[in-house]
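Folds vary. Our protein:
___
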Amino acid sequence: MAQRKINDYNSRAVKRDQGIVEASARTVHRTGILPGHQAFSREEAAEALGRLWEEAETEAGVDPNKPSTWSRRHLHIRKGLVDPPFRKIAHAPRLHKAFNDVLDEGRWHPLNGLGWWPITFPGFDIQRWKEPQVGWYVDDIQFHHHVNSLDQGLLPIPIFSE
């Protein structure tokens, strides 16, 4: 059943000129990951990244200009942020188009902001992460994700830096 739905999705996505292109449809089908390149502007990303650094400094004393303050591999900012850069990114037209392409129009609720930020600092990993070669990749530590969940369709992960 799930395989059939994925194939139906691929057919719909490929037929549409707007939204997701054929290569992206194949990628989501193969890996479960839908890259949304340039879903929001670099300026919006820079503003959001600045706010996240402020939160990191408040929460853990982390300074973006002082790598010596990056004393652990991960920092989790466990809050939703609804101020303008996050709200604007959450309502980006290209992002909404992708949501509609994957979930169908009217089958998801717009976000008021973005939240629960896992921040990974460089220099702590011995081996680079590798994309799974089989199955779907699920990344989460506080919630179990299920492909057939009625209340959950996507886990958007915005990336604000390269």
User: Anything to note?
Assistant: Residues 1-18 have pLDDT under 50 and may be disordered. The first strand starts at residue 74 and ends at 81. The two ends are 37 Å apart (CA to CA). The chain has two domains: 1-35, 39-123.
